[in-house]
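For the sake of transparency, this paper describes our internal protein records without simplification. The remainder of this section carries one protein's record, kept here as part of the documentation:
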Amino acid sequence: MASHAQKVRDPGSYKISSGLKSAFIALVLLGVVTFLYGLKVDAERAWSSFVINHFYFMSLALGGAFFAAIQWVTGAMWSAPVRRLAEAFTAYLPVSIVTFVILYFGIHHLYIWSHPQFVKGDQVLEGKASYLNISFFMARNILALIFWYAFAGKMVCNSIKQDESGDFAYTLKNRVLSPIFLLVFALTFTMASFDQLMSLDPHWFSTIFGIYCFAGLVYSTFAALCIITYLLRNKLRGIVNTNHFHDIGKFMFAFTVFWAYIGFSQYMLIWYANLPEETGYFIKRFHEKWFYVSAFLLVGKFLTPFFILLPRDAKRNADLLFKVAVFMLIAQWIDMMWIVQPEFYIHGPRVGLIEILMTAGFVGMFGLAVSRFLSRHNIVAIGDPRLAESVYKHHQ
């Protein structure tokens, strides 16, 4: 394998063009200005859009760490040429820490449990007050973000060091770190999902909600990985081929099904039990204009990618996969809107310039973080001992 590793072409780093960098910066500035304008004219709308995008892009960054950790735990061969691209997503985690701290200033606009006058006399909120209070909410979520950043940073750092030395010891180190990360990630991401999203309606609860958010995280991560692999396909020529796109496409298809399974399981159990404290969540989302968004999640987020990606040839068509991946990322954003906005707007979704431009600002921040990482490091984990096997075996 060592002789093969010497034959794998080194693609180097990705040099972002000044035009693309300027475009990302312009999107960030546009998003900041829109957010400040939104705070002035409709603070509730601005903060609801902020929490949608904060959680959406935080999940993408965490998805990159999750993907990389799974590859080290399993010793996967197929993913070696694209793992560094997923690792690049983790560069956004420090930004997620900042956006969560900013979220502190919108707590009173987002979370009813942050108002003592609403908690007093409400038996449910009083019972949850020891957990749902501002200081504990901020402390546990910041600690989770720091843990994610520290572990992801250490694992990615080991991966980069292996590029320079080729020392297999770095892979062994990550095989020790990854199970620890995955175990704590499972618990802390569930907590973050409960805190930042489910507690928007503190009277409602679902023990499967954390898994629902996790399904969306992986769903969007594979879509984002497909997009970045496609955009860098020229630099990855001779390393990534149709078989690698086929593998990514299979996971896009698999987690489309997994998301639908978890979503149906959550709905079915609540429908079957028919308990008033649980059904209110779906009643809001199945009435007035929210019904059409719910219908889109079934038809758009599940059935559309399911039937498009079902044939083998579709998963081997990089151009088609790219288009489906873009659609899946949009569908995931709509799902996040479906989770958040009905708590503030019961008659239907609000999607206007405020939402679009604020989302563009987050796209700019994510793009800057990822492109900066890829411009400083090799876009392929060239020191990975499984790289040659993946490149050459997948050419067969």
Residues 1-6 have pLDDT under 50 and may be disordered.
